[in-house]
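Quarterly update, task 2.4: heme C-bound model.
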Amino acid sequence: MVERSPTQRPAGLKMQMEKTVNKLALAFGTLAILATPAVAAEDPVMVRKILMQGNAAGAGLAGAMLKGEMEYSPAAGKAAIASMNAASHAFGDYFSEGSAEEDTTAAPAIWEDAAGWEAELAKFTSATSAAAEASGREGPADLDTFKAAVGPVLGTCKSCHEGYRVKR
Ligand code: HEC
C-alpha cells in the first residue's frame, strides 16, 4: 500500500482516506484466504461465509459512499464492485451435498429447489458482471454512475436471502 506523507494532504482528507483504506482492506483481506485450494475443499461452509463477508464489506463500502458518509472516489467504487463481482462468481461452488448440515444459515431450499437457486445465483453474477463492465478500468467516474452500476447488485442481496437463507 502506498504511504503518503501527512503533509501532502489536509487532515480531513487524510482521515477520509484512512477510512477508505480500512474498508478496502476488509473487502479484500477476506478474499485472500481463498488462495489456498485445500481450505476450500475441506470446509466449503467456511469459504462461502468468507465470500459473503467480502461481499458484505464491498456492499458496506458502496453504501457508505451512496449515503455520503464517505467521499466517493472511482478507485473505491471500483473496489466495492470488484469484491462483489469476485464473490458472486465463486460463491455457487461451495454448496456441496451435506454442507447443509453444518453451522450455516443456508436454507434447505438451495438443495430442494436447485433450479430456483441457480436462477438466483445467475441474477447475482449477471448484476455484478454488468457493474464491473460499467466500472471500466478507472472505476465509475462519479457517484451517479456508481449508483446506477451498483444499485442492481445491492438489490440481489435481499431477494436471495429471502428465498435461500434462514434466520438463526
Ligand atoms: C445468490 C444468493 C445470495 C446473494 C445474491 C447474496 N447472498 Fe448473502 N448469503 C447467501 C447465503 C445462502 C448465505 C448463508 C451462507 C451460510 O451460512 O452457509 C449468505 C450469508 C450472508 C452473510 C453472512 C455470512 C456469515 O459469516 O455467516 C452476509 C453478511 C451476507 N450474506 C451479505 C450479503 C450481501 C451484502 C449481499 C449483496 C451484495 C448478499 N449477501 C447477496 C446468499 C446470497
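Highlight for this quarter: The CA atoms of residues 72 and 146 lie 9 Å apart.
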